[in-house]
Amino acid sequence: MNKAQKFAVSSRNKNKAVINKNIFQLSIITSALLFSGYTLAYSETGQLGDKNSWESQEYKNDWGLAAMNASSAYALGYHGQGAKIGVMDSGALLSHQELSGSRFHAVKAKGEYGSTGMRYPQELGGHYEKGQAFDVTGDWIKGVNDTHGTHVTGTVGANRDGEGMHGVAWGSDVYVGNTGATDSNNYGPYQDYQYFYTGWKAMVDAGAQVINNSWGTNPRIIDAGKTVGPDGGNTSVHLPVDTTQQTEYEYFYFKKIYGDNPSFVDAAYDAVKDTNVVQVFTTGNRDFKNPYYRPLYPYFNPQAEKHWIAVAGLKQTADKTGYEIEGMFNEAGNAKWWTVVAPSRYIYSSVVDADGNPGWDTFSGTSMAAPHVTGAMGVLMSRYQSMNALQVRDVMFTTANRYNPDGSLYKDWKSADGVPDERYGWGTPDLEKGMYGPGQFLGKFEYQLDAVPLDVWSNDITQAALDQREQEDLAWLADYKANGIDAGGDYNLGTDFVVNDGNPDPTSHIIDKEEAKKWRQEYYQKRADAIQAKIDAGLYDGSLVKTGEGSLVMTGDNSYRGGTTVKQGSLFGFTESFGTADVNVNGGTISVLNHYNDQFTQKGQLVSNESHKANININDNGTYLVTAGHNVNVGNMTLNQGAKLDIAADNIGQLKDVYLNDNTVQGTVNADNLADNRAKSKMLANAAPNAVNNDYALFQKEVSVKDNTITGSLSKKADTSFASFANNENGRSIANVLENNAKGQLFDATLPMSAQDLRHTYQSLGSDMYLNANTASVVNVLGLTRTVKDQAIGIGHGRYANLENSNARIWMTGVGQWGNLDYGYSNMDTDFYAALVGAEIDVASHTKAGLFFGAGSSKYKAHEYGKIDSNDLHVGAYGVSNIQNVAAINYGVTHTNQDRDAKRTLWVGQDSGYNSSSYDAKITQLFVEGAYTQLNNDQYSIEPYAGFNWLHVTSDNLHEQVGNMQFTTKTDNQDIQVGTVGLRGGYPFAAGNVNLALKGDVSASHLFGDNRPEAMLFLSDTGEAKIRGGKLDNLFGIGLGIDAQLNKSTTLGVSYQGQYNSDVNSSGVNATLKINF
């Protein structure tokens, strides 16, 4: 019977994460990614390409998903798979059904406190002592933690299982840490550096790319009378942070409390600096215009900005038709350049009660907003697998949304398009727009596109934020240079309130003015240095550097000013898509298009508007690729020394037209001014400057330069067909199917291949590994049968153990055979092992009959073609009859069943499919052999013999795949006949009291009938090809052994046997124990 295929995984060659440039127009099948890492017993209703299908009741139970357009990302196949997200909070109940499974990990943190303090100074609780040990994991701890972390973790990544709700990044791996406290943990200057550094660093070491920090509450002050914030919130007992001077006070307060030691917020930075990890912090739940120090940290420490995200709160409007800032929570303020706003009111998620019982409930706060952002990062990281988290952060910022569903701006949004707002920051993460590439470059964006072969960016990439940032930064810097630290105005030293920090001294929080001046000077200088470094590096103009072997397509109308550099791989785009500065191709390839059919992000046909023209410099080792069917316009085009030109097809339809109809396709590049400096190169002085590397197997490429135009053409190569690249019979069979049928996925995949890739495809698909495994099994079964026959007939007196009145025997044999087959097109090493147990009885004076059964294993190693491991069962019956002491006839039947597990990687060009399959093979055999025994006597035995075997070989069909292409191998049944002649002999002798016999055997066998295995290979929807294995015809056999009579009833024999021809080398050793009874 056919057994179920275990699995098949397709991948791109890891050493060549590159699109075959012969076909530029590609569609990446995201369905292969859809359920990776997601193995719940839940029937998913969502369908690729249909965002509405993802909006189940479970989805709708968190309105924040719709506010971020999460279903658009899910419909493209991105839900956090492959992303690793950290959550530092009050633990999480990882037995909750929403948080259970292999995606969730409790991170362990172990060490000693480095200071003495209180977690809850406002409550005089949560004491810890310097030197006190801690050893915690992210699992919720009864009596220590509260439900906060369980709720937050659910919003990040709860299971999509049809119940309750699901997280934003429901396919991500989630790493949970533990604050060792409840949400009342105070994030003022009260926490221990060592504890939090250890916890955050453990997450980083575990692989977390972004870490959510919703935990804690803000510093408190003694109530001195009711105060309200700008939106009417009660701020009476909360440390105020409305003005820059007030936020500056909190910074001073941290400096005062920690002294020369780093703070726990420094620990957040220290844990991620020199990495690509991002920390996410809440702005706070108070009605103030600025965040608290924790999210505002980069304002005072600009080196940390690229690692920081601050999150303010968003709520639904009263009629639930739009969104607006939650004014009762801290706003972006001075942190606007790294702040986003996210759903924070009435968020439904997983919870745990004080006794550890799971459930669901609705909470509000920026604590609920942050995990929406962190989850959004996870979804975007699954979309942009070649970006690090710092770059994904920029994508999230620059594609954030500021509009209601009806198209109106959020209430009170003040900033210009593309510029962060004082209240909202960048806006709300938009997982629809975020699928289409960055909206801006926030400096130099170096994109190493290696993890996936293709990415497509269709968003317009502008300069708006950088221009505004430059204006603000330069104004601040000019003020500082003119006025020094006095530019900051008066100091808030804490004299008009008392901090509720558990210290009985009501003045302990007050800052000395001289200290305040020193600390302002420190952070002012940091800010000034950071701004100057940006100026010096030109980072106020966005730029793109393309590295990595993958291909990037840009179709936006892009206005970034810092230039584009191609170092590796391929960059395709419209003439208006490369910004306003020059494009320098220093390696890799660039091609300008006038249209693009986007199947990657499903935007369909996109067309260039030529709002401005690209200026392109092709430098040494750079290539300009003309895309057939595209007639494009550029500004200045310079071909410098070492520049190369090439042409490729836009789509498979073009190549079909050329190949099947013998047509020619062209593409042109028309420049306003083209300077060809290549002829000036000494290297090219004797070479044709327009020579191209023809990496098509089937097509001829031509590129020419005349005046200001580059023209490329593709035509069919003369006297060339698919079969021209086949090196053997199986390859030719596959090639003929491609040539004659000219259809289907395999035809489309092979048509644009290089000669090398086409040969490799034939070699892989045409491998006869499965067929030659059957041939190897025939050789092994013949060897096993020889062992059974040898023990049955006996030759030489050492074979016989005499026991009066004995007419029955049992025997046991162990067999090991090792060999190599060089048949057909795949060299194969084989190992064969078997243990047999048999019994025989004399049924007449000159006839005995026996039965045997056994088990063993076979291993077939075809090297680069794959391997097969088999568990074998053997059964059989045999008989021996002596005729008048003149002749002996032995005869019998055997059956071998092999339960095979096969593993091999199939290649179609540079795409591979790793396949693991289980199937059965069976060999049934009838044998008969006659020997002339008249020459035997007491001194020696000599027996000429002749035999005949008939073997019937069957094996199940095998189903394999590469990507979406299905390949089925249907092996033909074989009926093989074997004729054998040979001579065997024995010489008995004694050693002391032990009777021994030497024995030997030589034979020659001829195999005929279906002695060459064949199969039909179904080539996806392209057709079927006959493939053949090696022909097994003649074998030469040799055997040597010795038998010993151990006592009157027991005989032991050890022997060697081999089978050989020019393509087979099989050697075996067996040992047989025979007992009379």
SS summary, helix count = 17
**Mind telling me which CATH architecture of the largest domain this is?**
3-Layer(aba) Sandwich
Q: Given the C-alpha coordinates, what overall shape results?
A: elongated
User: Which structural class best describes the helix and strand composition?
Assistant: alpha/beta
| E-strand count | 48
Mean of residue pLDDT values: 92
The percentage of residues in β strands lies in 35-45%
Domain tally? 4
Q: Name the CATH superfamily classification of the largest domain.
A: Peptidase S8/S53 domain
Spatial strand order of the main sheet? 33-34-35-36-37-38-39-42-43-46-47-48
Under CATH, the topology of the largest domain can be stated as Rossmann fold
Poorly predicted regions: 1-40, 681-688, 797-802
Which sheet architecture does the biggest sheet show? Answer: 12 strands, antiparallel, barrel
CATH class of the largest domain: Alpha Beta
How far from one another are the termini?
41 Å
Radius of gyration from CA coordinates: 39 Å
The proportion of residues forming helix, as a percent range, comes to: 10-25%
Pfam family, one: Autotransporter
Keywords: Hydrolase, Protease, Serine protease, Signal
GO molecular function: serine-type endopeptidase activity
Family: Belongs to the peptidase S8 family.
